[in-house]
Protein: Endopeptidase S2P
Organism: Lentinus brumalis
Amino acid sequence: MLLLVLAVFWGLLYAYRAHRRRKGPASFLPAPPSSLTSASPLLFASRSTRITLHNLHLSAQLSSFNDIHLSASARLRRSRWKVLVTSAYDAGSILGAVGMVGSLVLLVWASIQLALSLYDQLYAIPPPHTPALHKRDALPEVALPSNSHQAPLTLIIPGVTTPLSDLPVLLVSLLTTQIIHELGHAVAAALESVSLSSVGLGLTVLLPSAFVAFPSGEVDSLPPRPRLRIISAGAFHNLLFWLALVIFSWARIPSALWPMLGYSDVSLYGRVVVSVDESSPLYGHLPRGAVIYKVGDDTLNTGRRAAERWEALLTDRSSLGEHDPPLGWCAEEAWFAAHNASCCTPSHPAIPTQACFAPSSEPAFERCVDPLPFLDSASTPTHRCMTAIDCGHAQLCVRPRSDQELLALTLHVPSWLRGNGDGTGEDGAERTLVWQGDSTEILRDVSVGDWLPRSHMLPIGLPLLFSQLFTYLQTLTLSLYFFNLLPLPFLDGGQLLDALHSWWSAPSSIRSPTAESVPLSELEGGDGARTGRRPQVDPHAHVRKDLRGVVHVCAGALLGICVVLALANAYLDR
């Protein structure tokens, strides 16, 4: 569906461009051969706006913000805070250099870890298993060294590594972090009285982008320190934004905000059902807004947060259950024996309303019964047991066969959700839903949250949406900080490396803190010509230039290796 929408969207844009080109002013002069094969990328143009389309890239450039930037630059020059702000962006230059080195270190480390993780998945040898007889005494737990390596780098691929439903939030987060990044360049340029050519937004296939443009050569003509401030300001803003998000989370501001907006926190004892995938068998049976507080026989109100308990119980029930073996149910022996055993045979097709049960005392005495009366204890109370001794006369202690994937979800339906016409309100407040199948499918198909609205007027998914947006903003703004500082020619890191190289190659008088006030004639050698001084020539300049090229090539190779290894790991983890 997404591919169809994208195809229609881009098809309409290119159709409009072709229509606009045909409607252009006629010319009686012969057209050059190149114009017969190339279409103008222009879609729309006005005095302050220019929209172009080229190679599945839609770009909108605006010059209407130039006057605002010019006015801000004039105010900053006269402001008494200019020295402090300039010092802050000087610190950003230092952090940019540190981040550039850190990004290379992270790439090397990530490449090694991803390669080891891929090797483990491709060539992992299971530990040898030797059959042996053991006493039934409990064996001491022995911690075995693990050879697995957790992949440190996960590419954000909607539908593969992240849910496809997160795509709108992901794109909004990506655009927000880029706007903050470009705002840093614009503010730093205003400090140096560098005018703004245009600001703009772009769209490449599906990915949004933002950019600012300065007059050609104006930034490159600046002395090294101002140039460093402008180049590193974007990444500096991303880092500041990430720190602000960390402080926002550490101060637990959302925990104080949501109760004021009419939401109750259930994170200590349950999970709020926010949405259910329409293709899931649970759709239509698990009401949105219900609070799941029990999974099987295990409640979620333990010492840790219910979110961790919920995920752990559905991921590995065999190791986290409170009872081993699980508790059974007392059933009348005559009633149990009256059922058939057809569903217990491997060749028999599965019956949705039946499951194979067996007594604890006679595992071979299998029968097909409806699991709902046992698992739905709210509607049909039954006595729980470990063995037949716990039951009455002529009763058996039965439980599902070990291969029967049965799971009961006990949930509470809030009062505002009962009797609302969606089929959820005729029963009581407590409900039991029996799931038959792989429990990890529940994790994949059901979105749950921590906050329960007190009224049907409040959107159920708003807190979860905010949480997803907050998480993506944190992840993307820090990723953008390191990614943009990679020393590649098309990124800020490449320009930062060039600026550092220019600063290091310049004479010491130009690298001094007062270099910004050196007259242009002196920098061009005018005074030196009159005084007879010979210009200083750095004998190691060509070596540093070659080293800069090597850094560019190594960074590009490492980035390519990381992307390929991360894609391979994501493919094997599907």
Observations:
- The radius of gyration is 33 Å.
- The chain has two domains: 41-120+150-261+458-516+540-574, 263-453.
- The CA atoms of residues 258 and 264 lie 8 Å apart.
